[in-house]
Write a structure and sequence with these properties.
single chain; mainly alpha; Endonuclease III, domain 1; Arc Repressor Mutant, subunit A; about 60% helix; about 5% strand; globular
Length: about 280
Amino acid sequence: MRLSKRQKSEFRKTILDYYAVWGRSFPWRNASAPDPWGVLVSEYMLQQTQTRRVIPYWERWMRLWPAPRDLAGAPLETVLKEWSGLGYNRRAQKLRECAGAITERYGGKVPRTPEELITLPGIGPYTSGAVACFAWNYPAVFIETNIRSVYIHFFFQKKTGVEDKELFPLVQETIDRSNPRVWYWALMDYGAELKKITPNPGRKSLHYARQSPFEGSFRQIRGAVIRVLSREGPRNAAALRGEIQKTLKDVKDKDYDRALEILEKEMMVAEEQGVYRIRG
């Protein structure tokens, strides 16, 4: 699909006019002088997590660790304790590793390009583009759920099973290269509003997948192990399970053992003489 000059102009105007009136404000958004490290932290936290939940965590983290070298030097136990409640604890582990890599390779300064960023721990194609764009106003081409919804809503209303490879050319063709940072903020905010007022256009995407419930999931067991060890300190298996069962009543032995095994393999938990602790 190729857009005419008029189509591109009208599309951009619609999105930017909406943003001018209804654009959201977040502490990591600063159009004139963004903190690249704050941008990167926000992108790790926002993965599969609602924005309103992220704000207090982001503000506290930026007070505790205002630069990559600060987080890189923090004990993993402390990092996981501060992350507790955000879910997907591996993100915290990877963010700490990323901070170490930035400190060692780039003198503590967040890289400017997607090509550099994607080499860092825990950063994939979307995050590398988003950080480059929001931190440095780099005209990267990337897609996330809200952006996907916008392009499907405007250009694929009568189609289902839309692939991202069909959207990327449109994203590249319509990007506002004079100010990509604000353009992507506008796209994301428009997409977030679309989901409130219409059936989610993202459901027409081939890549759409509804997130499974957290309650009763294996993720909840993993999170409980990390929460207890980071808040209460080292525990043997029996004591650890006893603490977990105070909040999770029906944990099966095989799921509990599997959670410990996986967390050890992921280098988040260490075991010595039957006692488990957070690594690092």
